[in-house]
Amino acid sequence: MTKGNSTKITDELYQYVLAHNPPLDAVQRGLVATTYEKFPDVAGMQSAEEQGPLLAFLVRLTGARHIVEVGTFTGFSSLSMAQALPPDGRLIACDVSEEWTAYGREAWEAAGVADRVELRIGPALDTLRAMPTDEHVDLAYVDADKEGQIAYWEELVPRLRPGGLIVTDNTLYHGAVLDEAATGSAAGVRAFNDHVAADPRMDSVLLAISDGLTLSRKR
Ligand SMILES: C[S@@+](CC[C@H](N)C(=O)[O-])C[C@H]1O[C@@H](n2cnc3c(N)ncnc32)[C@H](O)[C@@H]1O
């Protein structure tokens, strides 16, 4: 088994990647800076900078009008996706933290997309279970507690339209997925990756982008 012709991403090469992606706009840049200033200990939870343009690209590629996000934090990923939605599109943002998501509300307002985002505070599993069960979700982005991922998946797949996409972050979990004795979040990601790879309802690819990103399309 070989690695193909994969490239080691040095810091310099990472900057090159960012320089050849669509740049973040002023609201996105401001939100990233504010997050690192206000919450330095947990700011690393924010989706990686290159994921903003990638998520926007996927929203446009799928023509998504109805998005569900599990794990909003200070709102970078939801902002990036909401900006790519058509004006009548909707994004349901799920999180448990009023404090962190307040910064998201400010950013959505500043970007003029607040009317596209509906924030639902509470355990995401409760929020998902309360959603209608017909196929009305075009795209879901999952980036919350890793132990809950299989449960989120099982709620999202039936609600996804055929051709709809689930994007799951951190599926390499800093390499800890290789540890057969992993516990906690790493064990959750390992179990999730096996679950997804064996699910006949979906076509999935695990990409070595950022901390691992799995794209799953409903058949
Ligand atoms: C990795 S951060 C999300 C980062 C976000 N996507 C961004 O771009 O900034 C994970 C978020 O999941 C939330 N979270 C954790 N457990 C949750 C649960 N059971 N239900 C809803 N949200 C949860 C946390 O409050 C945190 O804001």
Automatic annotation (TrEMBL):
Signal peptide, first to last residue: none
Q: Which Gene3D superfamilies match?
A: Vaccinia Virus protein VP39
Q: Which UniProt keywords apply?
A: Methyltransferase, S-adenosyl-L-methionine, Transferase
What SUPFAM superfamilies does UniProt report for this protein, alphabetically? S-adenosyl-L-methionine-dependent methyltransferases
InterPro entries according to UniProt:
Cation-dep_OMT, SAM-dependent_MTases_sf, SAM_O-MeTrfase
GO terms (BP aspect): methylation
Q: Give one GO molecular function term.
A: O-methyltransferase activity
Look up the domain of life of the source: Bacteria
* Keyword Electron transport set for record: no
The protein in question is named Methyltransferase domain-containing protein
Originating organism? Streptomyces subrutilus
